[in-house]
Amino acid sequence: MAARGCRTSEVPGASQPGLLTPPVGGVARAAATAVMYPPPPPAPHRDFISVTLSLGQSYDGSKSWRRRSCWRKWKQLSRLQRNVILFFLTFLVLCGLLSYISVADQWRAVDGRSAEERKARPADPPVLPAPQKADANPENSPGLLPQKPQRHFRRGPPNLQIRAPDKDSKDRRQDDTRRRDEVVGDARQEDSTQRTVVSWRGAVIEPEQGTEPPSRKAEGPPTKPSSQAPGIQNQPASPNERQRAVIDAFRHAWTGYRKFAWGHDELKPVSRSFSEWFGLGLTLIDALDTMWILGLKKEFEEARKWVSKKLRFQKDVDVNLFESTIRILGGLLSAYHLSGDDLFLRKAEDFGNRLLPAFQTPSRIPYSDVNIGTGAAHPPRWTSDSTVAEVTSIQLEFRELSRLTGSKKFQEAAEEVTRRVHSLSGKKDGLVPMFINTHSGLFTHMGVFTLGARADSYYEYLLKQWIQGGKKETQLLEDYLEAVEGIKRHLLRRSEPRKLTFVGELAHGRFSAKMDHLVCFLPGTLALGAHHGLPADHMELARALMDTCYQMNRQMETGLSPEIVHFNLYPQSDRKDVQVKPADRHNLLRPETVESLFYLHRLTGERKYQDWGWEILQSFNKYTRVPSGGYSSISNVQDPLNPQPRDKMESFFLGETLKYLYLLFSDDPALLSLDAYVFNTEAHPLPIWAA
Fold this sequence. Notes:
Layout: H1 24-36, H2 70-76, H3 79-111, H4 113-119, E1 159-163, H5 169-176, E2 204-208, H6 214-217, H7 241-260, E3 266-268, E4 273-275, H8 282-286, H9 288-294, H10 297-310, E5 318-320, H11 321-339, H12 342-355, E6 369-371, E7 377-378, E8 385-387, H13 388-391, H14 395-405, H15 409-422, E9 435-437, E10 443-444, E11 448-449, H16 456-468, H17 474-491, E12 492-494, E13 501-503, E14 505-507, E15 510-512, E16 514-516, H18 522-531, H19 537-554, E17 564-567, E18 578-579, H20 592-604, H21 608-623, H22 651-664, E19 677-679, E20 685-687
Antiparallel strand pairs: 1-2, 3-4, 5-6, 6-7, 8-9, 9-10, 11-14, 12-13, 14-15, 16-17, 17-18, 19-20
Helix pairs in contact: 7-22, 9-10, 9-11, 9-22, 11-12, 11-14, 12-14, 14-15, 16-17, 18-19, 18-20, 19-20, 20-21, 20-22
């Protein structure tokens, strides 16, 4: 049973019969294996340790731990997380760039200050010390130190020197000479030279040859000749009664401004607060030369200190090119000429440079607005046009800035506008439309002609540029004379029943008997032209228009002119000559009437013009004076019981109105002589250039 499937056999030598044996071959192989190949010894057990080194990280012994790259971690973030991180990083980069630019500009300004001062070193100007009644101790006057003789290098025209017309002028020159050190602290030592002396209200300016610094020679001399302008008289008589009334009015207005609006643009006297237009201390700058002329030393020095310490033009603000030029640039230039203080010229040059981007247009006709911090210029939001008056009434200031600094870029930019307007079509016998496009350089809104808002000072500056430049620029004179003839032919009418001569408007061939109070600049301009040799009938027309402007005030219940009047043209009517619409009966404390009264009195000597101005000053005091300080424009000149104050004192009330009243009441023709100075349209006197 056990041997099923295998064969059996006996092994030789086996002693036990019947024993089962395996096949011989199988037994031999088994025996051989047991003897020749013993089993191998077991292999030794080996252990291995894996170590991973990673800086800044620890190994926690976990099998799931692995090193991840920054890129893998970034990819594992959600799209929202990545966008947030990218936005934050971009924001940080932009903030860093803006901070760098701001800091770099400040350092450039600091580093370049001395160089700019060397470039902007003014001509030797008239220096007028304080009135005799002022405190002689310079420590009591901020910003003033005893003056040593000094030399100002001329940047083109000869220096302006003021001397007294009497025999003792040389002694007074030596006694009254002073030096103005900058309140900002930059002490400059300069060579000595003899300087003439004048009082606060002026003297006679005579030329003295100066030296042009090498830094200006590369730019070349100014395009216009130097000035030789007499100043205001050395030792005038004490202010008369009417002039003292003007000084009192100014001090009252200044008290309100100083108390409630110091350093801001305009005073709101009723609410005892302020309003901002440019944020540049507009009223303060506009009033600088008025304070000097009125002899208000304390107020002037306080204002000068503010200009030195606080007036900064590096700010992100849009300014109107025209308004900022006539008020700020004109005010600084005038203050420089009257006081001889370099501070005002440096500020003027800085501001002029910031206005130049406005001229960068396809037509070279400037935009109406420019950002003085960024240099970005643009037209008004509602149009691409500028007004003709605005672009043609900045030339006096820019030309004078070039004459003083020796840099022709200011004059060239402004005079290019004059040349382009001169060659345009669309005029009517010298009369110009009100608007001009900054892209095409062409007139727009054709067929509308006025001497009121948006066109008025175009005609004024034609004459005054001709006078400023020494009566050499015949193109300006021709345009002015043609315009006067156009006024006579198209705009001049007489009212009923008193036959008042007035200047109306023309719209597409249709005459309107509307006359802005702004047009009352015209009598003074016509009289000034006649004084400088233009036809005598200009003076006759000036007298007639002056009567009309006085009646615009006289026929109102408050004695103050409204903003706009309409004249009666019908003889059978029972109406007065002067008619006022409800929307036009406000008064903004404007100067145009008293401006022309000043010219007419100065050039004719007739006392009635002073009397008319005195009536107007009394009306201002009665209906616009605010007890807490300041004067307010009013809404209704026909209601003396309730003139309705508008709670705003325009800067030109101090810069123009009170200045012209003070000059009107003076009987001294040498006080800012019209043969020596030309007034810009904001009443800032600039010297007439000598031949």
